[in-house]
Amino acid sequence: MTHSPLPAAFPKPHLSPINRFLPVWILAAVALGIAIGRIAPGAGEALESLQVAGVSVPIALGLLVMMYPVLAKVRYTETKSVVADRKLLAWSLLLNWVVAPAFMFALAWLFLADHPEYRTGLIIVGLARCIAMVLIWNDLACGDSEAAAVLVAINSVFQLVAFGALGWFYLQVLPSWLGLPAAHVDFSLASITLSVLVFLGVPLAAGFATRFVAERARGRAWYEQNFIPRLAPWALYGLLFTIVALFALQGDRILSHPFEVARIALPLLIYFTVMFCVSMAIGRVAGLGYQRTTALAFTAAGNNFELAIAVAIGTFGAASGQALAGIVGPLIEVPILIALVYVALWSRRFFSSSPSHPATASLQKGVTS
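Above: the chain sequence. Below: its structure as tokens.
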């Protein structure tokens, strides 16, 4: 079956050097983080000690630097059309809060039935829906920034309300119904709330305030054509810093448990890939258009690793198998979702140009400058 060339509404993005060679920078950041952890273990310990209320300051700093440019790019006055898109919101809620936790539960029991600690940690990862890093994956894939902002905001609300209830259901109730061993876990509402406030609330408020003040002072044209292109690269700098910090903190532990990591990584690889591809297919069939389908897919495939790690460590301890499973999550998620950015860009040929978002051109300029 042949497909027509990309329509005019989907111009091939002109990637800047840092975007074009992003996999190289990712691998370099991973290698640097591991080297720091191995050569200077004291540096890793110092980074780990930098915590406020259980939140890693280096990781939080990296994520905030990464998310601020993305959220400053959002046209908040145009989010009304996203909120009115009931089809998009319904699919997002279904995929994030019904399909994804159930799928991770099935994978955890299929691959880790003999290892309850890793299994529990994996289920916790599946319950922590993404409210942070998904924004940069969506941005790199030229998805709808307004749609992504709305979907992560909805996820943050559901995270506060549903995380504990779903944890109780998937770790205690459902295993009992199926005649499987149950895990007894108490989730901290304070940890969940803090995660939402730090990793979404702060950069969201900063991004909104920046656009509001700058547009009032200099106008939208100056803001999107001059300010955003200068700010945009900092999102990738923040991403690379976060990866270095993650591997400096946990890389040595990952290397010292290679077989356990491989067992945890396999179901995660399947989870990220299947959730993304199924979501893209659903968006294509439902007629959501490429940009909103991309926002839907990355939101459904991504996870809030900071919350998952915090819950696992706070409940079971830093040396537990549950914590190791949480730590493996982002170390697998980052390279897989980077690869899926390229899959998303390739898949644009399967989408018609009619549902394209009016802000695409200016947003793409900010992404690729």
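The beta strands are 51-52, 55-56.
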